[in-house]
Task: structure prediction
Amino acid sequence: MKWLQAIQNKLPQHKYAINAKLLGDDRECAWTNLGYWNDATSSYPMACEQLAEHLAQAVQLQPQDRVLDLGCGQGASLKYWREHYQIQDLEAVELQQDCVDKINKHIQLKAIHCQSFLNLKQIPFPNQFDVVMCIDAAYHSDLNVFLNAAHSVLKSNGRLGFHYLMFSDQSLSAKQKIKYAWLLKAADVTWEHLKNEQQLLQTLTQHGWSNIVIQDFSASVLNGFAEYIEIQKMKKKSFDLEQLKIEMTAKLCRKFYQDGLVRYIQVSATKK
Result:
C-alpha cells in the first residue's frame, strides 16, 4: 500500500496537469502547450510564445479588446497578452484549481473562473467579449459544444481563435479507425468529435461563424514538439512518471504527423 501511495503521489493530481519544469519552463506562471517550432526557436518558452502570437495575430488582437482566455493553464498566456498587447480588460477560465490559485497569487485580472470552458453560460460575466482565445486545449472537447459556449459570450462581430485536430482527406480502413480511436483516446480526444476540413467549415458556418480561416500547423507543432522532446529525452538519465507522460505525448504527436491522417490546425472566425 505504501508503494502504491508513493506512485500516486508522483502522478499529476489532474489529468491536464503538466510539470512545466520538465518541459523547459521553470517560471512560476509557466507555459504548458505544444509550442510552435521553427529553425529560429531556441527554447520551449519561445515556442509556446510563438504559438500564442500566431493566435493573437489571427484574431487581430488589440489593446482595447475585452478578452477571455479559455484553458489558460498556469497563466503564461495571460502575462503575454498583458505585456505584448497591453490588454487590460482580461478574464480567464481554467479547470485546474491549483492553476487558478497560482494565477490569483501572481497575476492581477478582472476575474479568473475555475470552471470548464464548455460551461461559460454558468458564469455571470458582466459584459460580452470582443475576443475569445483558447490555446492548445479545445480539441479535448466536442467542437459543437465548444463553439456554442464561445458564441454565447462574444459580442456581435467578436473574434474567436483556437487550436483543434482535423482529419486529412485520406481514407481510413476499419482497422485504422479502431487504431486511431484508441490513440486519440490516449490523448483525451474523442474520435467522433473530429472532422475533415469540409465538415469543419460546415460546422462553423452552421454555428453562426464567418470569416473562417483554417491553418495547418502540423509540421511546426506536432513534429516540432516531438523533435524537441526527443532531444530532451537524450539528456535525461532518471525515470520519472511525469516525464513518461510528456514523452508519450511526443510519440503521439510524431505518429499523427508522420501518418498524416490527423492534422493540427489553428482556427479563427468571427461571430455573425
